[in-house]
Amino acid sequence: MGHLQPPPSPQSQPLAPASRPQPPILAVESVTKHYRRGSERIVALTDLSFSIDAPEVVAIAGPSGSGKSTLLNLLARFDVPDSGEVRLDGQDLASISPAALDEFRNRKLGFVFQQFNLLPVLSALENVELALAPQALSRAQRRERAIAMLERVGMGYRLAHKPGELSGGQQQRVAIARALVGRPRFVIADEPTGNLDSKTAAEILQLISELNQTMQTTFVIATHDPRVMQLANSVIELADGQRIG
Ligand SMILES: Nc1ncnc2c1ncn2[C@@H]1O[C@H](COP(=O)(O)OP(=O)(O)OP(=O)(O)O)[C@@H](O)[C@H]1O
Fold it and tell me: Which portions of the sequence form the region Disordered (predicted)?
């Protein structure tokens, strides 16, 4: 018998990459989560499902206690569901080992908070540069990227200011630059307009919308703010841990 094998039939050829279906950016599938307080069992999320298939701005809405923070904690893999799955770019987050978590968050996620959470002793530029520290870049490359990102959010003229020398809206712009400078596909924002007056909040939302479109970044925003819900491409509405819209 010779060594030559017959050529594979067309059916057994691997599919070309272009024809392979892409997984959703985010898939939340039948997720349930409860907490325990002594003998009490508190159900925070029940059978929650949704997916994000394209880079979008998605609002997570619902009254206090409806499960928004619980959901954000699962998306950031600060916690894992009791049952169901959260998949980012096809990867089940529960399968990430504790040792690989920092790297996962650095590579894939950005965070924006209500209180901005900038380091008060560092300048705007240093706060943004710091987010690039885990990456294999020279100091000059980090500086260059951080400046470019700050310019992009309209803060190129305040590089040396410390957070205490900036307005709330300016601090949130710096925080958004920090979240996006590593070019994550996915940004998790917790009430990003909660500490801002209404004009500044509208400007920050405009910026988020622009960055979503120009950088193809997906934003998931937990909020009570109706303006966020108006701007969002889709709204996941929670009540008592269940999806109602
Ligand atoms: N660590 C915990 N231990 C026990 N119960 C908790 C814990 N965290 C949240 N809960 C409960 O789970 C439910 C969902 O809480 P969650 O914080 O997710 O709501 P939320 O929509 O983010 O509220 P808010 O808008 O006030 O931040 C609530 O009933 C809450 O009391």
Answer: 1-22
